[in-house]
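User: Can you predict the 3D structure of Anti-sigma factor antagonist? Sequence below.
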Amino acid sequence: MAFKVTGDEQGEWSVIRVAGELDLVTSPVMRQRVHDVVAEGRHDLVLDLSDVFFCDSSGVGVLIAARRLIRSCRGRLRLILPAGGAVEGSHVNRVLGALGVRRLFDVYPDLAAAVDEEPLSA
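Assistant: Sure. Here are the predicted structure tokens for Anti-sigma factor antagonist:
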């Protein structure tokens, strides 16, 4: 699967969907997309990582930088990370947990839950 970053709007939320490997080569593309969205004045962001099947430390760094940027704008950042065994995308959830940074993010199982106003986790 080739790396792909797409975006759209869901109400007041900007949604960035990422597919493929999030690594040293591809993470700058995602970083730029996040910066572009914020530059447009959109500070409520959902990163859909459901189709990311590999994430290295540079990918985690982009997620942490996105969190820092959104917080500096007093915005909200939510991640979509499916939980569980063989579900594609759960790799990112495991990596964030292993590095001890999972607690920094509001994580949701799907887009409908992520754009709902009631947070599932803090």
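The longest strand covers residues 44-55. The chain has one domain: 4-82+92-114.
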